[in-house]
Design brief:
There is one protein chain. This protein has about 400 residues and is mostly helical. Helices cover about 75% and strands about 0% of the residues. Helix 6 packs antiparallel against helix 8 and helix 7 runs antiparallel to helix 8. The longest helix is centred in the last third of the chain and has 36 residues. The chain is globular, with a radius of gyration of 22 Å. It comes from Sutcliffiella tianshenii. Keywords: Membrane, Transmembrane, Transmembrane helix. InterPro entries: Gate_dom (IPR011642), Spore_IM_YlbJ (IPR014226). Pfam families: Gate.
Length: about 400
C-alpha cells in the first residue's frame, strides 16, 4: 500500500473514531463544547478584537510602514526581518495568538516581506498575551499572581531566543549585505514619514470602508479561533474518555523523571499539548507536587501553544505561501527554552518575591504601574461584560456584512 493511501486510511480511521466517541458520549462532548465556548465568549473575543481592528487600521494608514523604517536597524541585524516585524512582534505580545500570524500574512500579501522573512517572523511573534498569562493562568488557575511574573519572563525571553535561532532559517547569503548595511544605518524620520505618506496615498479606501473591512476581517478571524477552541476542547475530552490521553501520559511518564519532574504531571502535560487552557487548569489541580514542577510544565505547553493554537495558525498561514513546518519547529524550541528559563530563574525570583509559593502576600505584579488585585478585577469584569461586548460586535458584524451583500445584489 502506498504512503498516500495509508495516510488516507489513517485520517479516515481517526475521524471515524472521533465521530463514534461523540455519539457514545454526548454529555461530555456538550460540556467540553461549553467550556471552549465560554473561554472564547468571555475572554478571547473581547480581549483580541480591539487589537486586531487597530492593527488593520495601522497597516492601512501606513503607520506600520513608518514604524518599519524606524525599527529596521534593530530587526534586520538581530532577526533578519524587516523593521515592520517590530510592529508584528509588539502586537503579538500585546494581543496574543494568533494575531502574530494574521499580521505576518497581511504583510506578506502586501509584499512587504519575503516568504523566508515571513517564516522567520511568524516563528517568534506568536505568543500568549499578558492577560492570559496573569489573569487566566496565574490568578484564575493557580490563585497566585506571583507565578505570572516568572511565566511571562520565561515566555517572552524564550520567544527572543527562538527569534535569534530562526534568523539562520533560509538562504543566509541573500540578505547578508542588507543586514550589514542596516546595522550601521541611522534612523531617518524623513524617510519614515515618506513611507507613511506613500502608503496612505496607495490606499484609496475611504475611512468608513477601511473601518468596515477591519471589523469584518477581525471578526472572521476570531470566529475561526472560536471554532478551533471548541473543537480541540471536545477532542481533548474525547481522547481522555477513550484512554488515549492516559496511554500517551504513561509513555511520557518514562521521560519526566529524567528531568526530575513528577510523573503525576504527565496527564496535564498531554492535555496542555492539545489545549493550553485545560492543561493549565489540570496542572494547577495536581496535589503533592512542587510548585516549581507545575510552573515548568505550564511554561512548556504555554510556549508550545497547544495544537489548538497551532491549528489556528496553520489555517491562517494556508492563505499565503508561508510554510507551517518552520513554525511548528519553532514552537518546540520555544517550549524547551521557556521550561529551561523557568528553571534557571526560579531561585532568583523566588528570593526576590519572598517566596513564590506564598500567595498570601498580595503584591502588585508590575509595581508601581499596576495596583494590587488588577488582574483579578480585570478577569471579573471580562466575565461580566465580555459576553455583552461579544454579542454587540457580532451584531455590528452582521449589519456590515448584510449591508455589503445588499449593495452587491443591487
Amino acid at each position: 500500500m502506498s504512503y498516500s493511501k495509508m495516510k488516507t486510511l489513517f485520517f479516515a480511521f481517526i475521524i471515524s473514531l472521533l465521530a463514534l466517541s461523540l455519539i457514545l458520549n454526548p454529555q461530555a462532548s456538550f460540556e467540553a463544547s461549553l467550556r471552549g465556548l465560554k473561554m472564547w465568549w468571555e475572554i478571547v473575543f473581547p480581549s483580541l478584537l480591539p487589537f486586531l481592528i487597530i492593527s488593520e487600521l495601522l497597516i492601512g494608514f501606513g503607520v506600520v510602514a513608518f514604524i518599519g523604517v524606524l525599527l529596521e536597524p534593530l530587526m534586520r541585524p538581530l532577526f533578519r526581518v524587516p523593521g515592520v516585524g517590530g510592529f508584528v512582534w509588539a502586537m503579538g505580545m500585546a494581543s496574543g495568538y494568533p494575531s502574530g500570524a494574521k499580521l505576518t500574512v497581511r504583510l506578506r500579501k502586501d509584499n512587504q516581506i519575503t516568504a523566508y522573512e515571513a517564516e522567520r517572523l511568524v516563528s517568534f511573534t506568536n505568543s500568549s498575551n499578558p492577560l492570559f498569562i496573569f489573569g487566566a493562568i496565574a490568578v484564575g488557575f493557580f490563585h497566585n499572581a506571583k507565578v505570572g511574573i516568572i511565566l511571562a519572563l520565561a515566555h517572552y525571553l524564550g520567544n527572543i531566543c527562538v527569534g535569534l535561532v530562526m534568523r539562520f532559517h533560509g538562504p543566509y547569503y541573500k540578505g547578508k549585505k542588507m543586514e550589514r548595511h542596516s546595522a550601521f544605518k541611522g534612523i531617518s524620520l524623513r524617510k519614515a514619514f515618506s513611507e507613511l505618506h506613500q502608503t496612505r496615498l496607495k490606499n484609496q479606501k475611504p475611512l468608513g470602508k477601511l473601518l468596515g473591512d477591519a471589523v469584518l476581517s477581525s471578526v472572521q478571524t476570531l470566529l475561526m479561533v472560536g471554532g478551533f477552541l471548541i473543537l480541540f476542547s471536545v477532542l481533548n475530552s474525547m481522547l481522555a474518555l477513550i484512554g488515549v490521553t492516559a496511554l500517551l501520559a504513561s509513555l511520557l511518564g518514562l521521560l519526566l523523571p529524567l528531568f526530575q519532574i513528577s510523573t503525576e504531571l504527565s496527564i496535564p502535560l498531554i492535555s496542555g499539548i492539545f489545549e493550553i487552557t485545560l492543561g493549565g487548569k489540570l496542572t494547577s489541580e495536581v496535589m503533592h507536587v512542587s510548585l516549581m514542577d507545575q510552573i515548568i510544565i505550564t511554561s512548556f505547553f504555554l510556549a508550545f501553544s497547544g495544537l489548538s493554537v497551532q491549528a489556528q495558525v496553520a489555517s491562517i498561514l494556508a492563505e499565503s505561501d508561508i510554510r507551517f513546518k518552520p513554525f511548528f519547529i519553532a514552537r518546540i524550541m520555544h517550549g524547551c527554552f521557556a521550561a529551561l528559563i523557568t528553571f534557571l530563574l526560579w531561585k532568583p525570583i523566588d528570593k526576590k518575591l519572598n517566596g513564590l509559593e506564598n500567595a498570601s502576600i498580595d503584591i502588585p505584579v508590575f509595581a508601581p504601574f499596576l495596583p494590587a488585585g488588577f488582574w483579578e478585577k480585570l478577569m471579573t469584569n471580562l466575565e461580566v461584560y465580555g459576553p455583552i461586548f461579544t454579542l454587540a460586535v457580532l451584531w455590528v458584524y452582521l449589519i456590515i456584512l448584510l449591508t455589503r451583500r445588499l449593495k452587491t445584489v443591487s
